[in-house]
Design goal:
alpha/beta; 7-stranded mixed sheet; two-stranded antiparallel ribbon; 10 helices; 11 strands; about 40% helix
Length: about 300
């Protein structure tokens, strides 16, 4: 039952810490030495605490250890738990501020899972093993939507329009584009391809949820060259498998190339054959974990 009597006040953390120190050492003098204060200061603190609780907290007998009274025994475990909880909260807050713990949600465009991003995330995981890391792969449009809804902390994407929104944006590296085609195709005799060559290929590209960002970018770079392109809502691995079966060719990033039997990869060597890779995050974000990951990806991008 909760008493309706007016509370005398609440103890502060210093008073509770003093109480616990006296209880643990069973001595006012020993508690004073450990806390670096005078014995009268400890006695005064305990006296003020006893006024709040309405009774003695310690039995005081000359020459005998300070023993807890029934009131003292009643509040001891809760006081200890309270201070422990506060200490834990402070430690977690400091760890988060120093980017040693917390959570981070990272989004990336398909095809960027390798290269600088992979290396940066690997370094981040090694240096911050206690951070809860969530990774999302999606289209540029979906990544931007999730970022603006704050379900992602940072995204790494290609085919980004400069200054498209109010987020902070940084160009990290340029990614060369390559064409994946069946290894029996006559074009495999070439060292590289130009945009005009792609007009002779049946192209296949991914389009998740109707997103046409990548298709429009390639179309703009093809210029006046007519080209055939089918859009598929499949994974990148499935798209490469379609290439292996001879159903067409597709365009990928150089760092995303993984050798596959039956598939050849040729670089596009022509004007506008590189794609900029940008990091984007909320302009008002102060997440130290985001800063940490970005610095690591930036370091690997500089040597890419």
């Amino acid at each position: 039952m909760i008493s309706n009597r007016r509370l005398r006040g609440r103890p502060d953390f210093h008073q509770l810490e003093t109480f616990l120190k006296v209880a643990e050492t069973r001595s006012f003098a020993a508690a004073a030495r450990q806390m670096g204060v005078s014995q009268p200061a400890v006695s005064q603190t305990i006296a003020r605490l006893e006024e709040l609780y309405g009774g003695d907290l310690f039995e005081r007998r000359r020459g005998a250890p300070a023993a807890l009274t029934p009131i003292g025994r009643a509040i001891f475990p809760k006081a200890k738990l309270l201070l422990f909880t506060v200490d834990q909260q402070i430690e977690r807050a400091l760890a988060t501020a120093q980017s040693y713990t917390g959570s981070l949600s990272v989004g990336f465009y398909t095809g960027l899972a390798l290269g600088p991003l992979k290396e940066g995330i690997a370094d981040f995981r090694l240096s911050r093993p206690d951070v809860e890391l969530r990774i999302v792969e999606s289209s540029p449009a979906e990544l931007h939507r999730a970022l603006n809804e704050r379900s992602l902390d940072i995204i790494f994407s290609a085919y980004v329009t400069e200054g498209a929104d109010s987020n902070q944006q940084e160009r990290l590296w340029e990614e060369p584009m390559v064409v994946a085609l069946q290894d029996t195709h006559p074009f495999t005799a070439k060292d590289s391809l130009r945009w005009a060559d792609l007009a002779a290929l049946p192209l296949m590209m991914r389009s998740h949820g109707g997103d046409l960002t990548a298709y429009r970018t390639i179309a703009s770079r093809m210029g006046e060259h007519p080209f055939q392109c089918d859009l598929h809502d499949v994974s990148r691995g499935a798209l490469i498998e379609l290439v292996r079966l001879g159903l067409g060719a597709t365009i990928s990033f150089a760092s995303a190339v993984v050798p596959r039997d039956g598939v050849a990869f040729l670089p596009i060597v022509d004007d506008n054959s590189n794609v900029g890779i940008d990091a984007i995050w909320p302009r008002d974000d102060r997440n130290p974990l985001r800063h940490r990951l970005l610095s690591l990806v930036r370091k690997h991008a500089a040597t890419h």
